[in-house]
Structure formats: C-alpha cells, structure tokens
C-alpha cells in the first residue's frame, strides 16, 4: 500500500575544508514512504542539516542517487530544483522565515506566486491555508505583530499552501516555549493523520519521540532507523 | 511582472530615506540635463529669431571698384533683371557719413543711406505716413527722403508733422516724403532700429562724390536657394573683376546656419556635462542596490527556498532598480521643468522644457536603472539558497 516518496541511495556529501576532506554525509541510504512521520535526529555537526538540504532539494549530493516522487533530483539544474522545491516541498524553518514586509496572506501566497497561480485562486488557496492554522482573521497583519507560535503557524500555512508531497520542518520548535511547541507538534500530528508526509529535523530526542519513525545520524552515517517505540527503548 | 512592480514600489516605500537619497542623484542629473538643454534651446531660438529679423533672405554684396575694373549700377541692374526668377528685390546701398539737422537740432547717430525704391520691401517695413521713394525720384535725383520713426519723433514730434518738412543732410535740404512705422516696440534711441534716413541712391552717390557704388543687397525668393544665388552672383562678379579679392558675397542664411551649428555644439557639450552627473547617479543606484542585496540576503534565500527561480529574483531586483531610477527621473523632469521656467523668466527668455530633453533624460534614467541594477540583481539571483538562509 505504501509507496516510496523519498529514495536516497549511497548519498555522500563531501566538503573540502582546506586540505581536509569532510564527509558531512557518508553513504546514507534511506527510503521514506508517503504518509510517514519521520524525525531525523542528531547532534549539531552530525550531518543532519546537510541531509535536510539534500532532501529539500536545496543542495545536491556529491555522489549517490536521490529519487523524489519518481524523479531523479541529482541530475537537475538550478531552475528544476527551484521547481521541485516549489511544487513538492513545504519548508518550515526554526526562525519561521516569514518576509517581514509582507502581510500574512502575502507571505502564504508566495509559493503559489512562484508556481504561477492566478491572483484570485492564489488568494483563495492562501486564505484556506491560513484557516487551517486558525489565523485567517489576522491575514492583514505583519509577521512581527504575531507571537512566535503564531508566526510558526503562518509558516506552516505557507508550507501547506502549495499542497506539497512533503513537509520538511527544520527544528520547528527550536524557538518556541514548551506550550507552543506542544501546539505545533500536535498540529504536525494532525496533518500527518490527514495523510501528509512529514519530516522533522531536530537535535532534541523529546521532539523526535513525537514522530512515528526515527532516523538518527551520527558522524554523517545513519546509526539508528526504526519505529519510535524501539528508539524510546534505547534511550 | 506586475507583481514585481508592486514589490519594487513596496520596497522603495519601506526605505523612504534611502530611496530618496538614491533618487536624489538621478533627480539632480535629469533636472540639470533638462535645464541646460532647454535653456540653450530657447536661447538658440531667441538668437535665430533676432537674426531672422535682420533678414535671412538677404544676400549682401560688397565690391571694391578700381579704375581698370568696376561694376556699375546699370550692370548690376541688368544682372538682376536677368535673374528675377531667383531674386526678389535688389537695391544699391550707399552709406552717407553725415549728420542730419533740422533747425538747430542735430542728430549724429542717424544712419543715412542711399537706396532704391525696393528697399522698403527688402526690409519688410511699412509706411506710417506719406509715400515711399519712387523710381522717378531716383532717375531725376530728387532731394526727397524717407525717415525712421525715431527721427520723426525727435525732430518734429510726430510722423504726421514730419511729412513735407525739410531735413538738412550734409548741407543739402531734403523734403521728407514718408515716415516708416515704428519697428522697435521696446526702446527708441540714438542709432537704434528706428533712427535712419533713406534717400534715392542717385543723390547719395552724388553727395559721396563716388561714381561707383560699392555695396548692394539682394533678396532671394526661396531660402533654400541661398547657396545657388550666392554662387550666381560670385560668378557674375568674377567675370568682371577676374579677382575674387575685389568682391565679397555674404548670404545671411549661411551665417544663420553656422550660428545654429555652433549653438548645437554648445548645447551638446553642456548636455554631456549634465550627462556625467547622470552617470554618477547611476553608480549611486548600483551601490544602493548592492547594499540592498546584502541586506536582503535572507529574504532572497527564503524566496529561493519557496521555489523562486533565478530569473524571478533577477527580475525583481532589476525592476526595483529601474522603478527607482524612473521615479527619480520623473521627479527630475518635474524639478527641471519648473527650474527651466524660473531661470528662463529671470533671464528674460521664454524657456520651455523641450520634449526631446524630457524624453531623452527619462529614458536615460530608466536605462541607468536597468544597467546599474543588473550587476547587483545578478549577484542576488546567483546566491546559494542555503548560504542565503543561514545569513542573519
């Protein structure tokens, strides 16, 4: 029943730091199916951010194959990567990354704008998206008039607006207090129940335990990949 | 595209002070181009007009008669009669260096000239009172004269009172037969436009004790034939004199041409200097756009992460630069137009900003925005989304 959305095989990302070779990702193979809720966990410097960049089509691997939704991302040009990011991936960042001079609606509209959706439809879909996160009435506000939790909800609304195959969240609760973190995590669970594929990147094991599957990265390699219950058991 | 314009306006609006300072360079550059070009243009048309009132259709001929070779009035008239298809009028000109007296009043600056009956037409003057010099006056050397308004006004009080009065010119009594309408509406003065006396050239020749006449004025039918007409006269005179040092033929329209080309050069030079300030303004735009790109690295990263292609980012920043310069251009045009009128009014010129100057300076300012905005925009478009997202 489950079909693979993400297929990473033997991914390497190698940087040169002076004369020294740094293997940020060292032979990573990973398959994630549609409808999964995965946490990628690791300490800072483990290579999890590099992996996120590759999964998010922000960067390409030095070596290895990455198939996203049946398409080979490794061979794509900058413009094709931009299109993949636009159509298939909804990003949620730690710092929300809303544009401060645009109002909420305009922020949520951005991915649709770059997808070339017409004005009327863009508006409607962005409003629906804001309704899903419960901020439709505040559409005229600027981001800095909202609390951190609200801003993160707007960024989730933006990620949802383009109806992507994958929601990729980079430390989504990193800047939030525990109560709003709870809200955001519950919201991700709800989205996952509705059938969305979600990947959360985090350094925090307690956040990782909210997912259904955990992948742990250490020194550029996967050293755990399994059900959240099994992960809880080894902690 | 439309979206990019809106974004550009928004970004300019949110950085009012910085945008204004950037635009200031363009505003000043555009305004100075318009002021300089427009003022020079209106000065040029003022010069051209005052030159044209001297008679651009005139060709002046000066000959130096020597005993072995000379040209007589009759020969000149014969030549003129043969070419009436080209020439409109012709008159001999004999300047008489003498004073004009009436009773105890003397006028020393008055220009006294012997002319033919066609001189009135050549000058395109009209009579206020009386009649013009007639052909019969010339043949019979009648001591009659036509005077300018200033002479009539000074010596007799009014043109009406002057007619049929006598005027003493170089000791001879001349009867005033006509008074010419006032030409210079602004001032009447010694040696001015209205201070003259015309007599039959036959009388003037006799008074000057000079058998041959040294100067003639032709008018041509068609301004474009000035070159041909000049050549025709020169050929005719060369046949007689066999030496081109003994005569000089000057077409007023040619002088006007050289005046025009001189002014065009001056105008281009001044415009060029003003253009340099536009160039400097362009570098200012580039600088600000580079700052703007650096400042907005994160924004660019977000946009790229959300799927903005290189071309979209490029377009956004180029349009922003172009809109900014175009706004500066429009403000510069307004400022330049107002200043042109003001300076024109001060200088007593009817100065209007010329459409050409407006068009050129506007398109140059937009082009500057596009040109100098391109490099920063390309830098923005080429940013790596990861690095851009990481920047604070």
Short summary:
The complex is a heterodimer of chains A (235) and B (392). Chain A is of the alpha/beta class and 235 residues long.
Question: What does this protein structure show overall?
Answer:
Chain A has 235 residues and is an alpha/beta fold. Chain A has a single domain, classed as Rossmann fold, CATH 3.40.50. In chain A, 37% of the residues lie in helices and 29% in strands. Chain A contains eight helices and ten strands. In chain A, the strands form two sheets. A six-stranded mixed β-sheet of chain A has the order 6-7-8-3-9-10, sandwiched between helices. Chain A has a four-stranded antiparallel β-sheet with strand order 2-1-4-5, with helices on one face. In chain A, helix 3 runs parallel beside helix 5 and helix 4 packs across helix 5. Chain A starts with a strand and ends with a helix. In chain A, 46% of the residues are buried. The mean pLDDT of chain A is 91. Chain B has 392 residues and is an alpha+beta fold. Chain B folds into two domains: 183 residues, no CATH class; 181 residues, no CATH class. Chain B contains 14 helices and twelve strands. In chain B, strands 1, 2, 3, 4, 5, 6, 7, 8, 9, 10, 11 and 12 form a twelve-stranded mixed β-sheet that branches. The radius of gyration of chain B is 34 Å and the shape is elongated. The mean pLDDT of chain B is 85. Classes of the chains: A alpha/beta (235), B alpha+beta (392). The interface between A and B is medium-sized, with 24 and 21 residues.
């Amino acid at each position: 029943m489950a079909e693979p959305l993400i297929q990473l095989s033997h991914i390497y990302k190698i940087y040169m730091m002076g004369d020294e070779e740094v293997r940020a990702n060292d032979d990573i193979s990973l398959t994630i199916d549609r409808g999964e809720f995965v946490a990628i966990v690791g300490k800072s410097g483990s290579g999890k951010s590099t992996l996120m960049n590759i999964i998010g089509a922000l960067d390409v691997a030095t070596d290895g194959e990455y198939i996203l939704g049946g398409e080979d991302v490794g061979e794509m040009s900058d413009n094709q990567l931009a299109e993949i990011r636009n159509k298939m991936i909804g990003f949620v960042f730690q710092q929300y990354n809303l544009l401060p001079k645009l109002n909420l609606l305009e922020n949520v509209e951005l991915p649709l704008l770059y997808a070339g959706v017409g004005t009327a439809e863009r508006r409607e879909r962005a409003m629906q998206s804001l309704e899903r996160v419960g901020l439709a009435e505040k559409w005229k506000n600027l981001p800095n008039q909202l609390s951190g939790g609200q801003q993160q909800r707007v960024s989730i609304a933006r990620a949802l607006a383009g109806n992507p195959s994958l929601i990729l969240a980079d430390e989504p609760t990193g800047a939030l207090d525990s109560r709003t973190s709870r809200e955001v995590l519950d919201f991700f669970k709800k989205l996952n129940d509705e059938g969305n594929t979600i990947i959360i990147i985090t350094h925090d094991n307690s956040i990782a335990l909210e997912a259904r599957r955990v992948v742990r990265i250490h020194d550029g390699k996967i050293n755990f990949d399994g059900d959240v219950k099994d992960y809880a058991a080894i902690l | 595209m439309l979206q990019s314009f809106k974004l550009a306006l928004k970004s300019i609006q949110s950085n009012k002070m910085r945008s204004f300072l950037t635009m200031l360079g363009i505003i000043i550059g555009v305004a100075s181009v318009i002021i300089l070009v427009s003022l020079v243009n209106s000065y040029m048309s003022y010069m051209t007009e005052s030159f044209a009132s001297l008679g651009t259709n005139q060709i002046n001929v000066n000959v130096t008669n020597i005993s072995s070779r000379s040209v007589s009035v009759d020969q000149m008239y014969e030549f003129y009669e043969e070419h009436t298809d080209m020439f409109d009028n012709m008159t001999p000109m004999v300047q008489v260096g003498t004073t004009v007296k009436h009773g105890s009043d003397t006028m020393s600056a008055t220009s006294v000239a012997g002319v033919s009956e066609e001189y009135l037409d050549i000058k395109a003057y009209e009579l206020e009172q009386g009649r013009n010099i007639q052909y019969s006056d010339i043949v019979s050397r009648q001591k009659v004269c036509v005077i300018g308004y200033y002479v009539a006004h000074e010596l007799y009080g009014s043109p009406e009172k002057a007619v049929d009065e006598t005027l003493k010119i170089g000791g001879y009594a001349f009867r005033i037969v006509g008074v010419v309408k006032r030409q210079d509406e602004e001032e009447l003065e010694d040696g001015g436009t209205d201070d003259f006396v015309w007599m039959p050239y036959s009388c003037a020749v006799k008074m000057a004790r000079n058998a041959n006449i040294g100067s003639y004025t032709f008018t041509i039918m068609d301004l474009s034939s000035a070159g041909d007409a000049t050549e025709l006269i020169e050929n005719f005179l060369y046949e007689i004199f066999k030496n081109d040092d003994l005569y000089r033929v000057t077409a007023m329209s040619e002088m006007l041409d050289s005046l025009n080309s001189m002014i065009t050069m001056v105008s281009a030079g001044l415009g060029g200097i003003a253009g340099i300030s536009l160039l400097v303004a362009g570098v200012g735009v580039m600088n600000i756009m580079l700052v703007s790109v650096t400042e907005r690295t994160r924004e660019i990263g977000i946009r790229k992460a959300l799927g903005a292609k290189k071309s979209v980012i490029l377009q956004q920043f180029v349009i922003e630069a172009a809109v900014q310069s175009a706004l500066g251009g429009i403000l510069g045009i307004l400022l330049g137009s107002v200043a042109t009128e003001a300076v024109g009014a001060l200088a007593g010129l009817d100065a209007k900003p010329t459409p050409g100057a407006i068009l050129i300076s506007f398109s140059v300012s937009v082009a500057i925005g596009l040109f100098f905005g391109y490099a920063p925009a390309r830098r923005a478009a080429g940013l790596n989304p990861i690095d851009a997202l990481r920047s604070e």
